[in-house]
Amino acid sequence: MKAVLFDLDGVITDTAIYHYQAWKEMASILGIDIDEEFNEHLKGVSRMDSLQLILEKGGIGNRYSESEKVKMADDKNIVYKQMIEKVSPNDLLPGIKELLKDLKDKGVLLGLASASQNGPVILDRLEVTRYFDTIVNPAALRAGKPDPEIFVKGAQQLGVDPKDCVGVEDAAAGVQAINGAGMVSVAIGNQTTLAAANKVVPATEDVSADLLEKVWSGAINCNGVF
After folding, report:
1. Cα dihedral across residues 127, 130, 131, 135: positive or negative
2. For residue 134, which of 56, 86, 114, 127 sits 20 to 30 Å off, Cα-Cα?
3. What is the side-by-side order of every strand in the sheet holding 184-188?
4. Phi then psi for 25, rounded to 5 degrees?
């Protein structure tokens, strides 16, 4: 295992609640009501794709021009960025700081493969930017998750073959993207929802450098893949 690529929300920190609140506020202005169950479909999905899903839920998917949609997404992001100003190192999920440190001590390259365009800002606020060798810019991609492009790009930026990488996600769309990139996938969360992953663990504190290495090497039988 030469590299590990991480999603951000639900893996390193949990700003999903802020995304939900910001989307809910924007949707309400449009007369669309979204709840936490619907919000599950937005996890790991790009900003513009999330907006489209919300518009389609309200039956107005084709009502707005592309420029109008961009303005809506930008307005949502302004609200979201105001909400995340209070993010601090205390918002790192359990075990993540130790995981990043252990991986770096082992000489493993680390990358961020998040659909969030605010990823660099959040890493800075969490004070973990120094652990990451690369951050993929989602705005420069042709397609968002579940397309594998973001993970393929991450491997390219790190200069490693995807088969030598592990991707860590908490969303089904992200797991699909990791698998599509030809990487080994480790997911955090519900076993049923994330069954496509090579290995599923219930919480971030269950992920260790040794576990990732074992899953990658095939020492753990992950859903029959190895």
Report:
1. positive
2. 86
3. 134-135, 109-112, 3-6, 165-169, 184-188, 199-201
4. -65, -45
Residue in the block written with tokens 């295992």? 1
Q: Is the pLDDT of residue 160 over 70?
A: yes
**Secondary structure class of 58 (helix, strand, coil):** coil
Look up residue 159 and give its DSSP letter.
Answer: T
Distance (Å, rounded) from C-alpha 142 to C-alpha 135?
Answer: 16
Catalytic residues: 7, 9
Give the separation between CA 115 and CA 182, rounded to whole angstroms: 19
The Cα–Cα gap between 52 and 69 comes to 8
**53, two tokens:** 């899903």
The per-residue pLDDT for range 137-158, each reduced to its tens digit, is: 999 999 989 999 999 999 999 9
Mean confidence (pLDDT) of the chain: 92
Write the DSSP assignment of 109-140 as a string of letters. EEEE--S-TTHHHHHHHHT-GGG-SEE--GGG
Q: Is 82 left (phi over 0), alpha (psi -120 to 50) or beta?
A: alpha
Over its C-alpha atoms, the chain yields an Rg (Å, rounded) of: 17
